[in-house]
Amino acid sequence: MVELLGLVYSPWTEKARFALDARRVRFRFRGYTPLLGEPALRLKTRRFTGAVTVPVLTRDDGVVLTDSLAIARWADTQGAGPRLFPPEREAEMINLVDLSERALAAGRGLSLLRMLDDSEALREMVPRAVRRPLGPLAGALGRAGVKRTLAKYGVCGAAREPHASELARCLDALREALAAAPPPEASPTAPKAPRTLLGELTFADIAMAQALAFVEPPAFGLRLGHASRRSFTDPGLSARYADLVTWRDALYETHRPR
After folding, report:
1. 99 in Cβ contact with 173 (< 8 Å)
2. Cα dist. 121→27, 43, 146, 226 in Å?
3. How far apart are CA 256 and CA 258, in angstroms?
């Protein structure tokens, strides 16, 4: 069985898991621990310098796929269920996937900067097995990890506004794309199915749904502690884009296996 290595609280990992589940591909999930798990990750991916990240999928034939888009494309050749990459919509698909990446990068910067001001959230970033033995040092370790991640992705300074503005631009584009999409066809199995970006469920919907993770996390899919969920949530953007949060939640209820 294929193995997916990822972070339980990561929208990037959730992109891959959603795609695999939508295509009904059986896989074994293994949680990744930042820093502690990095040597093994570098060995698995054969990347001994530079940044390494998850999700990473190891196929039965030993081939390693190192990002959510590659994993989703592979999933689309396996299993059953809706085809996630209709070839006639490739250009639109890639534009929307790129838009989701911009939104997620901005949201990550926002959430991590908020987390630096939340001692409880910093403690939650430390693996539970070592959190209690570390005592008050757990928060310091969490802070060091967050700062390391900010530096890894080139987030400089403590200003949140540029990230919030970029995320808002991406969400405005999502709203426009949804408004231009054809309305869903009601069916006995899904009488209130949500609108999809290309007229049917594709990876574009899965990817853009994750753009809302740093606005208001979904009720399921991401595993977040109470304080981490607080850091992921932006009350101002959540109110401004309540329609998109509602769309994401409906997409999950209709298409995301629990």
Report:
1. yes
2. 30, 30, 10, 8
3. 6
Task: Answer whether 0.90 is exceeded by the pTM.
Answer: yes
Among the listed residues 151, 115, 65, the one whose alpha carbon sits nearest the alpha carbon of residue 231: 115
Judged by DSSP in three states, 208 sits in: helix
Phi-psi region of 31 (alpha: psi -120 to 50; beta: other; left: phi over 0): beta
Q: Is 35 helix (H, G, I), strand (E, B) or coil?
A: coil
Angle at 52 between CA 26 and CA 42, to 5 degrees: 80
User: Per the structure block, which two tokens stand in for 137?
Assistant: 């040092």
| pLDDT tens digits, 85-133 | 999 999 999 999 999 999 999 999 999 999 999 999 999 988 887 788 8
Please answer whether residues 197 and 181 qualify as being in contact, where contact means their C-beta atoms are separated by less than 8 angstroms.
Answer: yes
DSSP state letters, 50-92? S---S-EEE-TTS-EE-SHHHHHHHHTTSSSSS-S--GGGHHH
Q: Read off the amino acid at residue 36.
A: L
Sheet holding 27-31, edge to edge: 27-31, 2-6, 56-58, 64-65
Greatest CA span in the chain, whole angstroms?
55
Q: What CA–CA distance (Å, rounded) separates 15 from 108? A: 15
Using a 10 angstrom Cβ sphere, with 0-12 exposed, 13-18 middle and 19 or more buried, the burial of residue 223 is: middle
